[in-house]
Amino acid sequence: MASQLVSRLIDQQPQLVSDPTQKNDYKECVTLAGLCHDLGHGPFSHVFDGCVIPELDPSTTWTHEQASEMLLDYMIDDNHIDIKPENVKLIKSLIRGEQFSSNISPWIYEIVANKRNSLDVDKFDYISRDSYYVGAKDLTFDSRGLIEESLVINNEICYPSKMSFKIYDLFHTRYRLFKSIYLHRVNQALDMMVTDIFVQANSRFKFLDIIKDPEEYTYLTDSILLDIERSKSKELVDSRALIRRLRCRDLYKFVNEALILPEKAHKLPSDKGQIEREIVNCSSGDCESFTEKDIFVKISNINYAMKDQNPVDSVSFYRRDNPLVSFKLNRNDVSLLLPSEFSEKKLRVFVRDKSKLESVMVAFRQYKREKLGMTEGKAQEAELKVTPNSKTGKSSAEKSILTKRHDREESK
């Protein structure tokens, strides 16, 4: 897609790049940046990058883009690839989405990793691919029209104004993929189990060292789970036990969640460890005790790819009857039914040991009331306002809800 877009723009608007050598360099570098920008993902992709590494080193600034640049250098050196040093710099800057020289046309930075409005071929690719492979026919998105009708005006990639709603639809499709697929509660439970497997295996593998060594990192793939599973090492006994739980579908259990309204966001600590401690402190003396190690929280921010901003506010458009002039579109000029908020935060709680589920559920309800000023919905309150069992401190309604949830989760 990167190659298709840069070639179409340069060929259709030859005035963008007059030097034939530079024209070929742009096409080659954008194509290679598109191919290499995700090389640096570790095993299980974003789970390794966004969960495992931060868990091992909370102060880390390491990103998979940095690893992509490291592996690019390694491949060039190891395979004796003849490529101009300036082109290597350009490829790396395209991967980062950061212009490194004023001599480079700004619009080519909007193809692979667009920092201006996040509308780039990376999203065109994974939204279409992931929707197809998860069988979500209602989430499909066809980017061909955007690629075929894009123009460069004032050093920005612009799109016909008639496609403004289609662009909103792309970002909403991305939001729906995160909401219903990527951050599905079972997926998050699996992600945390894989994270725990890696963290417990770190004493054996030294992942923080591997990510700095391109040759070693090249061989760090999803197959590491099989390596751990086959190993007889005593260091890996806990990791092997977790893999067995994965095989047997004995997953970490979802407890409950809270959608954090913008006006209450300041009440939620950014440190998930603090949240876990506060939930433990909200536990009832009538319930089975649990510790921070029994639970984990996930704070998810789902948005339109630009935090709380509307990315389409930064997209430039043109009209077919005047393709030399670009302009911005107000949201209400597109539709009155578009969102007014572009980000949401959700707090979820899980348990590693399902025997602690009831206790944590009660504690989390108390945490929401005390710390976040939140109450249950009326329907859920009605279900839960039942006299607790004298032995367990749990209501029969709570037990019924938990049993139904267990049955649903186990059937997935």
Quick take:
The chain is an alpha+beta fold and 412 residues long. The protein has helices spanning 2-12, 20-36, 46-56, 64-78, 85-96, 121-133, 144-148, 164-182, 185-205, 207-210, 214-218, 224-230, 237-247, 272-281, 331-334, 357-371, 378-384, 396-411, and strands at residues 151-153, 156-160, 253-260, 295-303, 316-319, 322-327, 343-351.
Present the secondary structure layout.
Blueprint: H1 2-12, H2 20-36, H3 46-56, H4 64-78, H5 85-96, H6 121-133, H7 144-148, E1 151-153, E2 156-160, H8 164-182, H9 185-205, H10 207-210, H11 214-218, H12 224-230, H13 237-247, E3 253-260, H14 272-281, E4 295-303, E5 316-319, E6 322-327, H15 331-334, E7 343-351, H16 357-371, H17 378-384, H18 396-411
Parallel strand pairs: 2-5
Antiparallel strand pairs: 1-2, 3-7, 4-7, 5-6
Helix pairs in contact: 1-2, 2-5, 3-9, 4-5, 6-8, 9-13, 14-16
Describe this structure in words.
It is a single chain. The protein is of the alpha+beta class and 412 residues long. Helix content is 49%, strand content 11%. It has 18 helices and 7 strands. The strands form 2 sheets. It has a 4-stranded mixed beta sheet, with no helix packed on it. Strands 3-7-4 form a 3-stranded antiparallel beta sheet, with helices on both faces. It is globular, with a radius of gyration of 25 Å. The two termini are 35 Å apart.
Distance between the termini: 35 Å
Structural class designation: alpha+beta
**Largest sheet descriptor:** 4 strands, mixed
- Per DSSP E runs of 2 or more residues, the count of β-strands stands at 7
Spatially, the strands of the biggest sheet line up as 1-2-5-6
User: Quick one: overall form?
Assistant: globular
Helix content: 40-55%
Count of runs of 4 or more consecutive helical residues? 18
Give, in order, the helices and strands.
Answer: HHHHHHHEEHHHHHHEHEEEHEHHH
Mean pLDDT: 92
As a whole number of angstroms, the C-alpha radius of gyration is 25 Å
Regions with little confidence, pLDDT below 50 for 5+ residues: 382-394
What percent of residues are in strands? 5-15%
